[in-house]
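Look at one such:
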Amino acid sequence: MDEDVPMDQDELAKPSNAKSSGDDLAEYNLDEYDNDEAMPGMGPFSNIKGLTYYRNNDEDPYITLKEDDEEQEREELEVLPTDNLLVVAKTGDEISQLEVYVYDESEENLYVHHDLMLPSFPLCLEWLDFPPVSSPAARAPPEGGAPAQFGNFIAVGTLDPEIEIWSLDVVEAMYPDMVLGRPDKTAAHVPTPLGTGKKKRKKTKARPASTAHHVDAVLGLSWNRTHRNLLASASADRTVKLWDLSRDPTINGEGGEGQGALRSFDVHKDKVQAVQWNQADPTVLLTGSYDRTVRTFDSRAPDAGVGAMLGADVEALRWDPWEPHGFYVSLENGLVLNFDARTLPSDLSSPSPARFTLAAHDGAVSALDINPHVRGIIATGGTDKIVKVWNVAEDQDLGKRQVSLVTSRDLGVGKVFSTAWSPDDPLTLAAAGSKAKLQIWDIGANANARKVLGPKIAEAGRVLKEKSGGGIISVASDDEDSSGDEGGEGDE
């Protein structure tokens, strides 16, 4: 029979190898912890020598869906013949840039293709297809052959007196293909303060005018589509200048005057806001100024021009593509006037009544464009944030023109700075404004527009496309992509 062991009897402690009873961690041998041999690998990747490495996914036979980054990037940058390009000048957070948009009408898709950084605040844009002489596209290719005769370029007028011409075919361009002016010799746009010493007056000296270059901001540009090497510019220095893109217009390296501008016209007494070539008569220019006058003259004989006195400053002007001698002028007081150049006097003190006057907006009419597809359709935009489409009809009985409003809409772009008709579709209009937004407006989605303009479009031999939806196409933002809504950004 086993003896009972008392519960309160403790087992004798085993002797310890510790050097002292105070070193309780000595039994764990921490001094040699880092010298322990590595444990053998465990798990499915323990036999590391059996793994096969591939430099990229293309060499891995187990990856069957190959990714071609270059092919994907090429597809993203590809512009199809059916696409429309819109160039937008935008300034935000003290950063100015050009944004090139692609509009796919079949998919009603609008997105930013690429952008270009600008050194100064942009004021006006003008597209052209003539390669400037200093552009790489104008040089003969290394493999031989003739240089390119056509290209895709945009001229930019800014607060600086220089005009920059950028290639739109280069996605990541760092510098313009040509600069019209003389940025290499003097900073003509830097104001010179009056007085001497520490105390300076805020008023600046008047910059001395030059026939070779502008000395103030460039407010308007117009490219000659017949004589493709000619570009006209309007400036706050009260002059209109004519540039030849086939020769170097800058100052030469020896400090003397280079060729500069081809011609300089002093036909106004205040800032020249707008300029445009007459496509029907490619040597004739139309200009509008803050001196409240509009003038039209032959660039070969500017002194023989005619003009008209207006009641307010000029905001925009356009030749009528359907009448070689007719043009429209929009004013700061909200009026749009139509003139016949053949009836204008050479002496501005003589009366020069407009053919008709349209009270278009409450505030300045800052945007104006004439439909190139259908006669008698004009678009206006103003500081009242409204874009309007007008119908100009000939009244055979009265022998006068009747103007009526077809439709109007707040496109959410803020104060409207620019409107432009599509070169392909007669009822597609682009607008941009102060909210840094660009919107495409399909006017054919409006029932009244289809009813009023339908007969005109049919008479012009065009097909009226009936489309569903609200008729507004915007750039989809990242936040709105997830919700399926659409938004937009841009400025023109």
About this structure: The radius of gyration is 35 Å. The mean pLDDT is 82. Helices lie at 69-77, 447-459, 478-483.
